Amino acid sequence: MKRWRGMAPRRLLAALVIMLCHVQAADAHILKGEAVSFLSGFKHPISGLDHVVAMVAVGLWGAQLGAPAIWILPVAFPLVMAVGGMLGLLGVPLPGIELGIAASAIMLGGAVMLRLRPPLALAALMVGFFAIFHGYAHGSELPAGENGLLYSLGFVIATGCLHACGITIGLVNRGTWGKRAVRFAGAAIALTGVFFLRKAIA
């Protein structure tokens, strides 16, 4: 039994690493001019590791905080992200997109790693703030003149799926090994964010 408990966090970490390794690098996002359908919208959030880790972190943090955060945070993110997507679709200038996306992985991963438990309103505000940057990045990929409804629907649904993955992983947040595994995943996400932050400011 003790041996199984020791191996469980390693197996969880291995599964997380395998999942992340199968995601293309952040600079391999769908190119402008290619985002013309529900499918391309759905693929956009999962085509960049920077998006994936931040969205998984939202689910992890929600699971870590428990009800009602476990559903409020994953709902707040795509709702506010849609606003950011609209800004991108309209071409409204928003500086520091890549910095904001990298910072989201650092801050959200750090919140999971440190098991931060702020008031729910503050947690939702933090999640919503970073959702603006992710939404803008998605929305700005739509070619001028195209109908953005299906594309937007695609990236919102994909985001929800990534949140669900984070929640599922976060459900192991019971017992000593589970808590450690989730915190370790948060640390890995934060470190990934540092990598992307260095790329953004290079």
Topology:
Blueprint: H1 2-21, H2 38-46, H3 49-65, H4 69-90, H5 97-113, H6 120-139, H7 149-170, H8 175-201
Summary?
By secondary structure, this protein is mainly α.
Q: What's the β-strand tally?
A: 0
Main pleated-sheet profile: none
- Mean pLDDT over all positions: 81
The percent of residues in helical segments reads: over 70%
Question: Which structural class is indicated by helix and strand composition?
Answer: mainly alpha
Distance between the termini: 48 Å
The low-confidence parts are 1-9, 12-35
The oligomeric state of the chains shown is single chain
Overall structural domain count: 1
Q: Report the β-strand fraction as a percent range.
A: under 5%
Cα-atom radius of gyration: 17 Å
Q: How many individual helices?
A: 8
Order of helices and strands: HHHHHHHH
How would the global form be characterised?
globular
Question: What would you note in describing this structure?
Answer:
It is built from eight helices and no strands. The longest helix has 27 residues, at 175-201. The chain is 76% helix and 0% strand. With 202 residues, the protein is an all-alpha fold. The model is unreliable at 1-9 and 12-35 (pLDDT under 50). It has helices at residues 2-21, 38-46, 49-65, 69-90, 97-113, 120-139, 149-170, 175-201. The protein is globular and about 45 Å long. The protein has one domain (47-201).
Features:
202 residues; mainly alpha; 8 helices; disordered N terminus
